[in-house]
Structures are given as structure tokens and as C-alpha cells.
Design a protein that fits this description.
By secondary structure, this protein is of the alpha+beta class. 65% of the residues lie in helices and 7% in strands.
Length: 635
Amino acid sequence: MVAISPAQSALAGSRARGRERRLTRAHVARLALGALLLAYVSWQLFHWLPGRQQLGQLFLPLFDLIAIAATWGAWRRCAAAPGLRRFWMLIGAAILAELIADVILSGYDIAYDRPPFPTPADAFFLSFYALLLVALLSVPVARMTRAARVRMALDGATIVLGGGALVWYFVLGPTVLSTGEDLLAKTVSMAYPICDLVLLGGVAVVLGRHSPAALRVPLLWIAAAMLLTVVADTVYGYGVLHSTYTAGDPMDTLYVLEYCALALAALTQRPVREGDPRACAQETGRRYRVASWLPYIGLTVGFGVLLGATLGHAFFPDLSLVLIVIALAALVAARQFLARRELDKVQAELRKSERIKDEFVSVVGHELRTPLTSIRGSLGLLAGGLVGELPEDAANMVALAIDNTDRLVRLVNDILDVERMDSGHLPLQRAPVGVAELVRSSTQALQETAARAGVRVRTDVQELSVCADADRVVQTLVNLLGNAIKFSPRESLVTVAVGRGDGCALFSVTDSGRGIPADQLDAIFERFNQVDISDAREKSGSGLGLAIARGIVESHGGRLWADSAPGQGSSFRFTLPLAGAGAPCSAGVPTPGELSAGLSEAAACLDTGEGAAAAEPVREHFEHAQSAGPMQAPR
């Protein structure tokens, strides 16, 4: 047991108390924000205090103060990360500028029935946009490829143009065409919607780059705050143009929600310690999922505004909206072209990976099987007593080596079979064959295995013929029957049955083992997938057998599935086409290579060492025949 010094114990206690204080402050801040928001919304709905214009302007600075306090807390929690600390300092400065503007504007609204425009408050409001954008650009980001930068630029331009159509139609266009305002007032009026478009670009920057993990949630809240600002400014500008807005109007709720989003962004900032990798942007970091949808939302908004302008009466010529939508379509086309190029590049890399995988499998097939064959043969000679009788300990070690070698041979053959299935090169020699012979061959191959496991095998077979590759079907049955024997308790019964289905033969292998959970009935047919991960060690399984069995059955045009319930055993069923029930079977002449591969697979499927050793000389004979030249079909 490691002793803990009093100093270490005191430090741990201090850190725990610090975490508790931080949690307490965060909870208090959230409760205060929620209570104030509830009070404001209820006041807007029920007007439980008089003085709508004055009270409406007094509420906004309170929300600003809460957002500033939350930002100060986030700034303190990032003391060990200078980049994040600078970011929160700029966010706090932006909210402070808005607080000053709200206080000045409140004074004007209280003092005047119709406040003048512009006022000093507008300078601070516009400073809010500039400081917020600088804060976003100060966020540490990972290096981006040229294609990624172009993609982000196109997405940002699409978002800005889509929102620009909305802002132009309702605010900016009427402001440009308005008369009666002096130059300063018109310039300030136009600055707000232009700043809104800049904020839309900021949203694209926030969501399109790989930002530090510590800022993922806060940046999402800040993006929501910027979108609320754009919507609020658009509604406010429309109300001012039509003389329908007054201080304390319900649309001010949008600004209140903006301040709440900024406060929540700061409150969700977690503490960052020195050297914390979450404070640095990673090139492999995840982008926000919503980022891929924003350009299409911008395109939809642009077309929607054009459609609305066509059906209604515009404040200006419709040509401007048409040009905006044309520009949007061009941006989307460029974005799609870039996406297509990236897709082609990814596909080329996938093809390269497939080629490397094929080369690796080829190496496995030729460089591993040959020494394994030699090792297996030598071990078989030792076990057979060619060099004399072995001591008991040595004989046991040789028997263990034979079992492990056979297991490795089966694994190599399974990998090769899976690769052949993926490439569509699994050799099949279809011919009419009786199902009774198929079942007899598979049960005989596993007769000794069943005896050692204490499991009885019963067959119930109708006299049917199927159009199939006999060796591959036996391989499938040996796989299913071997699994049934392995997972059945002693003194239990495994049944292999074949009956007639709808134009097919229905095979079933049923056991009384532990069963398979319902959510695993499909997953067990995936590669390297097993119900219990310990089966690979305890049952000597690779997790490829069922995937190969399904591939063989489906190559014959059949279907393989499982029915089971935990504790009630399992039943694996598959179908094969009956002979003469469709396309005629053609018994082709196998090549020596196919015969060699088939014999190796048959030997690997046998659970006894003698069977594998007996098949190896025949396989070597056909390999020699293959190297000598092609086999000629008999005349």
C-alpha cells in the first residue's frame, strides 16, 4: 500500500474543495439566469409591472451582466491555456460593449418618446460585432489542407449569401432605397445588416474548422447566439422601417435569448489545466455535424426569399434577388465539384488499400501455408513414431503442437476463403449431389470430435438431390455441426435434418447448448464476431466460420440464418436449390489448383490430425501437376 504524505492529502482536499466551489458557482449562475429569463418571459406575457418601454430596456443590461460574469468565470478556468484565455477575454469585451450600448440606449428611451438616431450607443453596438468576430478568429485551429480551406470558404459564402437574401429583402434593400434620411443615419442603418452577414460568416468559421476539444460545446452555443443576433437584427430592422417597433417589444426576447446563449457558452467551459491536450486543435478532430447542412439551409433560404418576392410585392427590382440566387447556385455547383474531387481521391486511396490487402493475403497464402505444411508433416512423422517412440511428456508436447498447427492452418484457410468471397473468386464446382451423402460426410468427419465431447449426433434426412459444390457444402455443414458440438453440454443431442422446402432443400443443425441472445443473431455472421469474447480462447474459434458458411450458401443462391433463445439451444438453417429446380447444374472439370485448395480445406476441417496428414501428400501431388502444366479434360 502506497503511503500518502500530509502535504499530498491537503493538496487533494484543496482541489476537491475547489471543484465543489466551481460546481456551486456554475449551478447558482444557471439558476439565476433561468429565474431572470422566466421573469422576463412572464412579464412579456402577463405585463405584471407597468412601464413597458422603461422596464424592457432595464431587463437587457441585467442579462448582459450575467453573461459578463459567466465569461469572467470561463476566463479564470482557462488560466493555463493562453489561447482560450484570450478568446474569453475578447468575448467578455464584446458583451461589455453591448452592455454599455444597452445602458446608453435605455437612457435615451427613458428621456425621449422618440429617441434620435444614430446615438453613441450605435458605436458600442457595432463594436460588439467586431470584437465577436476577432474572438472567433483568435480560436486556435488545426492546420487545414488547401481543399479544406476552399471547402470552408465556399460553405461560408453560401451561408452568407443565403442569409444575405433574407437581410437584403427585409432590411438592407429598403434601407438603400429609402429617402429622407441623412447620410450618417443611412450609413449606420446599413452597417447593422452588413455586420449580420459578417456574423453569418463567423458561424461558418466556427462550425467548419477543427477547434480545440475544450471549446466544442461553448462554440456551439456562441454559434447559436450569433444566429439569434442575425434574426433579431432582421426583425428589429423590419420593425423600424415600418414603424412597428417600440422599446420593450416582444421581439426583444430574441436579444434576451442571445445573451442567454452567450452566458451558457461561458458556463459550459470546463477547467483546462496546463498541458491539457483538449486546449489544442487536432487535425483529426471532429467537425460539427450541422456544418455540412448549413450551406443547404442557406440555399433554401435564398430560394425561399426569391419565391416570396415573386408572389408578393418587392421593395426593389426582383433582379437583385435573381442575381443572389444565381450566385448561390454557382457556389453550390463549385462545392459539389470539390466534393466530387475529394470523393475520387478517397476512392483511389480505398483501391490502393484493397490492393495492399490483396497482396498481403497472397503473401499469407503462399508464404505461410508452405512452411505450415512442412511443420505439420514433420510433427505427424514424430507422432507416428518414425524416429522412435517418444517419451510421454514429449508425445504430449508434439500432440499439442499438432493441434495448434492445425488450428493455424484452419485460420489461414479461413482468411483466404473470406478474401475469395469478397473478390467474387470463390471456386464452385456445382453438380447434382444427394443430401444424404453430404450429411454422412460431415458427420463422419466430426465423429471422433463428438465422441470426445460426449455429444450424440442424430440425422433425419429425406432423399433429395441439390445442385451444389459438394466440398463447399460439406465445409459448411462441418462448420455448423462443429459449433453445435463445441457449445453443447455432455450427454446432449445434436440433430442434423434435411427436408424439402419451397423449391429448395432445407438443412438444419440444432443443438441444446447455451443459446444466442436475440441481438446477436445477425452479428454472429460477421467476421471475427463471437457471442462471448472468451470463446476464441476456450473454444479455439477464430470468428470466421459462420461468415464463410453464409458466404458459401449465398454463393449457391441460398440463405443461412439462426434461431435461438438464451438457455434453449440454437438452430442454424440454410437452403440450397434442388437439382433440376432451375438452371441446370454443370459439373466442370476442376483445375489442379482448385483440387489442391479443396483438399487442404477438407483436411483443415477435420478435427483429427491423421486426416490432415493423410490429405497432404495428395495435395502436394496436385500442386506438382499444376506446376507441370494444365490438366486436360478426358475425351
